[in-house]
Amino acid sequence: MEPITGTAAGVPFTALPPEGVEGSAPLLVAWHMLDAPRSDAAFAAALPMAGIPAWRVYLGMPFCGARMVDGRMDAGLELVQRDPLRAYTDRMISGAADEFPAALAALRDQLPVEDGPISIVGGSLGGGVALLTLARGEVAVRAAALVNPAVRARSVVGLLEEFTRQPYSWDEDANAVADRLDFVARAAEIGDRAKVLVVSGKLDFPQFRADADELVAALRTHGADAAVTTVPELAHPLAEEPGIEPAPQLPIAKIVDDILTSWFTR
Hints:
Elements: E1 4-8, E2 11-16, E3 27-31, H1 40-46, E4 55-59, H2 74-82, H3 84-110, E5 118-123, H4 125-136, E6 141-147, H5 153-164, H6 172-180, H7 187-190, E7 195-201, H8 206-221, E8 226-231, H9 251-265
Parallel strand pairs: 3-4, 3-5, 5-6, 6-7, 7-8
Antiparallel strand pairs: 1-2, 2-4
């Protein structure tokens, strides 16, 4: 079946119907990366998870996909230059998490999905959205999978410092924001609310890989069923540039797709 596109409470989405399922089906919601694939449609093409008997709905992040300004990512880059933590990382992660409850309610009105707990997927900064959603506990989540996730805002800022070649000026407010977006430190708030799988690329940014391991260890300490799977040839992105439009699935994305499909199906 062809993807369904639309908006839910103002949030653009790409939805993939379950194959061979009549009536309502479980719901899986995904947030894309800000690296390629960097739109809901492109993320759906990279990780369709077609074998899962559920609706897979991919939500667009702020300033991405259909919400790009003038059809370009320049607005997001401007936010990075302005303040990589408060204007960019926090605005992307917290903004997407803030709009999710209303978007979820709208999706339930538009699609034949079950009312029970959902599953969620997040890649890179989208992983931060998934983790913040778990920490807030406003939505019942059955299982969460994170692909090369942004576990700590400080790690994201460190990468953006390399990109901008400008050291970040930390102050009291910035440290408070970074603490709020440190999900190793907030593992107790997530606890055992959902089963968690972290897919970590061996070629991903070293700090992201270390954060992924620390997250799983912290979640286990607080009673979570959490695991990390390392993919040897996976770097950070899952698609080729520019990563905005849907593109043929790369072999490395197929490996991740198979891991997620198998795990969620179980």
